[in-house]
Task: inverse folding
C-alpha cells in the first residue's frame, strides 16, 4: 500500500541525515562565528530529546525482531541429576542416582495468521517511531531557527539602542555648548541628560535580552556549559518565496511525519482487528526432543517427535470483547487521522497568510525608516541653526529608533514565518 512506499524514504532520511544524533556533546570554541547550518548540525548531535527519540526508535526495532523470532525454531537444552530412596516392607532399598539430559525443539507450523499479523503491527509501530523521530527533528529545528533569529533580532535591536545612546550623547554635548554661549536654555541640557539616561536604560534591557536569547539558543542546541562568547552569522538577503497555498498544502500532505504516524496507527488498528479475530482459530505446533537418562553411565538414549493442535472452545467472551475493543480502537484511529488532516489544513492556511502578511510589511517599514532618518536629520539641522527646538529633536530621534526597530522586526518576522511554513509542510 502507499504507506509502505513512503516508509523506506523516511527511514533512509533518518539514517543518512542524522547518523550522529547520539554522539558526544560538542562544545563551542570562543570567538566562533556560527551559521544557521552550524547550529542545526550541533543541535542534531547534542539535543537530548532527539537522542532519546532515536533510542526509542531502536527499542521499537528490537521489539519487531522479537516478534519475528516466533517464525524460527525454539530450541532449549536441559540436564538433571537426582538421588532418591524409597521404603518398602523390607525397609529402605538404598539410595539410587538418576541422570537425565535432553535437547528440545518446537516449531510453529501454522497459527492462522497470528504471528504474521503481530509482526505487521510491530512493523508499523517501528515505522511510526521513525516518523515520530523525524517529526521531532523538524519541530526541534524550527525551535532552533526561532531561537537563532530571536538572537539576531536581539543583537540588531541592541545596535539600534547603542546608536540611540550615541545620538543622545551628541545632543547633550550640543545642548551644553549652546547653553554655555547663551543661545539655549538650561532646560535643553536637563532634558538631554534625562533622554540619555533613558536611552542607557533601554540599552541595558537590550543587552539582557540578548544574553537571554543566547542561552535559549544554547539550550535548544543541547549545550550545558554555555559561554556565550560566540557570534552568529547574519544573512542580509531576504529568503525567496514563490509557493502557492495549494502547493504548500500538497507538500504537507506528502511530508508531514505526524500525519504518516496517524496513518500507520490506523493501519495497525485494522490489523489488530484481524489479529483479535484469530482468537477463534486453532494453532498447530510440531515438537521434538532427544535425550539421555539412566541411573548410571552410560545413559540410555531416548527421543520423541510429535505435533499438537490447540483449539479454543470457550474463552468467557474474552475474544468477542477483544474484537469489539479492536474495532473501536480502529474507529478512534480513523477519527484521529481525520482530525490531524483538518489541523494541518488550518495550520498551512494560517502559516501561509502569515508569510504574505509579514512580507507585505517589509517595504512599508523600509520607507518609514528612510523617512524617519530624513526627519531626524532635518530636526537636528533646524536645532543647530536655532530655528527648531529640542522637543522636535527628541521626537524625531524616538521616531527614528522605533522605525529602525520596526524594520528589523518586519524582516525577522518574515524570515521566521517562512520557517514556520516549512515546519507546517513537514520540511526543514
Result:
Amino acid at each position: 500500500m502507499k504507506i509502505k512506499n513512503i516508509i523506506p524514504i523516511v527511514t533512509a532520511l533518518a539514517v543518512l541525515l542524522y547518523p550522529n544524533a547520539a554522539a558526544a556533546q560538542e562544545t563551542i570554541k570562543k570567538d566562533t562565528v556560527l551559521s544557521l547550518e552550524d547550529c542545526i548540525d550541533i543541535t542534531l548531535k547534542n539535543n537530548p530529546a532527539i537522542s532519546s527519540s532515536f533510542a526509542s526508535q531502536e527499542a521499537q526495532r528490537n521489539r519487531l525482531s522479537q516478534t519475528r523470532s516466533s517464525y524460527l525454531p525454539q530450541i532449549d537444552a536441559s540436564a538433571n541429576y537426582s538421588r532418591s530412596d524409597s521404603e518398602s516392607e523390607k525397609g529402605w532399598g538404598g539410595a539410587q542416582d538418576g541422570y537425565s539430559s535432553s535437547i528440545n525443539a518446537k516449531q510453529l507450523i501454522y497459527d492462522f495468521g497470528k504471528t504474521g499479523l503481530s509482526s505487521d503491527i510491530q512493523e508499523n509501530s517501528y515505522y511510526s517511531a521513525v516518523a515520530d523521530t523525524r517529526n521531532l527533528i523538524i519541530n526541534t529545528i524550527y525551535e532552533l531557527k526561532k531561537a537563532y533569529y530571536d538572537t539576531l533580532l536581539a543583537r540588531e535591536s541592541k545596535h539600534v539602542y547603542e546608536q540611540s545612546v550615541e545620538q543622545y550623547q551628541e545632543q547633550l554635548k550640543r545642548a551644553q555648548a549652546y547653553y554655555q554661549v547663551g543661545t539655549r536654555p538650561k532646560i535643553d541640557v536637563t532634558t538631554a541628560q534625562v533622554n540619555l539616561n533613558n536611552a542607557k536604560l533601554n540599552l541595558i534591557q537590550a543587552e539582557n535580552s540578548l544574553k537571554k536569547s543566547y542561552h535559549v539558543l544554547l539550550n535548544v542546541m543541547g549545550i550545558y556549559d554555555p559561554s556565550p562568547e560566540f557570534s552568529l552569522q547574519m544573512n542580509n538577503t531576504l529568503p525567496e518565496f514563490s509557493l502557492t497555498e495549494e502547493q504548500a498544502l500538497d507538500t504537507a500532505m506528502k511530508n508531514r511525519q505526524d500525519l504518516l504516524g496517524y496513518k500507520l496507527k490506523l493501519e495497525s488498528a485494522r490489523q489488530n482487528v484481524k489479529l483479535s479475530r484469530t482468537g477463534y482459530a486453532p494453532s498447530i505446533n510440531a515438537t521434538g526432543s532427544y535425550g539421555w537418562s539412566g541411573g548410571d553411565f552410560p545413559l540410555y538414549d531416548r527421543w520423541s517427535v510429535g505435533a499438537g493442535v490447540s483449539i479454543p472452545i470457550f474463552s468467557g467472551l474474552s475474544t468477542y470483547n477483544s474484537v469489539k475493543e479492536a474495532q473501536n480502537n480502529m474507529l478512534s484511529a480513523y477519527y484521529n487521522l481525520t482530525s490531524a488532516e483538518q489541523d494541518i489544513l488550518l495550520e498551512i492556511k494560517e502559516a501561509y497568510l502569515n508569510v504574505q502578511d509579514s512580507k507585505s510589511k517589509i517595504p512599508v517599514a523600509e520607507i518609514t525608516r528612510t523617512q524617519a532618518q530624513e526627519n531626524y536629520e532635518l530636526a537636528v539641522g533646524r536645532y543647530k541653526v536655532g530655528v527648531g527646538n529640542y522637543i522636535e529633536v527628541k521626537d524625531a530621534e524616538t521616531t527614528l529608533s522605533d522605525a529602525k526597530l520596526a524594520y528589523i522586526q518586519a524582516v525577522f518576522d518574515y524570515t521566521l514565518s517562512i520557517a514556520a511554513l516549512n515546519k507546517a509542510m513537514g520540511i526543514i
Notes: The beta strands are 33-34, 74-84, 87-88, 91-92, 96-110, 231-232, 283-294, 300-310. The longest helix spans residues 318-385. The radius of gyration is 37 Å.
